[in-house]
């Protein structure tokens, strides 16, 4: 079981990803803003009915409860903190979220290759 504070942090990330304020998210979930804030702060956990409303809002509820998987680079790797953070977000993302992350990364790579090609041909 994950901690209430980890659940709250994940819920906050999902809300921000959806571009919602606490008040907007609470309204969509059919709860009070203060209650939403208590979920995010880890004061208490939502009931099953509220979790269903999260699901209807587009929140991947299973990712809120996923076991914490700390990512640790091996001794010989040169993985940066940013790469570890990105991998953490990727692992927590829904299938649609993973698709978006990969699409953005592939698009950035293509733009970089195009820019490098123009410089070397210039």
UniProtKB/TrEMBL annotation:
SUPFAM superfamilies: lambda repressor-like DNA-binding domains (SSF47413)
One Pfam short name: HTH_19
Superkingdom, taxonomy of origin: Bacteria
Protein name: Helix-turn-helix transcriptional regulator
Domain HTH cro/C1-type per the UniProt entry, residue ranges: 11-64
Database matches in CDD domains: HTH_XRE (cd00093)
């Amino acid at each position: 079981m994950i901690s209430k504070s980890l659940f709250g942090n994940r819920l906050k990330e999902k809300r921000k990803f959806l571009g919602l304020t606490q008040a907007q998210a609470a309204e969509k979930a059919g709860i009070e803003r203060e209650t939403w804030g208590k979920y995010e702060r880890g004061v208490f956990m939502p009931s099953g009915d509220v979790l269903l409303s999260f699901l209807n809002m587009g929140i991947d509820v299973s990712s809120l409860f996923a076991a914490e998987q700390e990512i640790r680079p091996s001794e010989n790797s040169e993985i940066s903190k940013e790469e570890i953070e990105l991998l953490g977000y990727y692992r927590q993302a829904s299938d649609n979220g993973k698709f978006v992350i990969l699409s953005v990364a592939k698009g950035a790579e293509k733009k970089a290759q195009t820019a490098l090609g123009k410089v070397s041909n210039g």
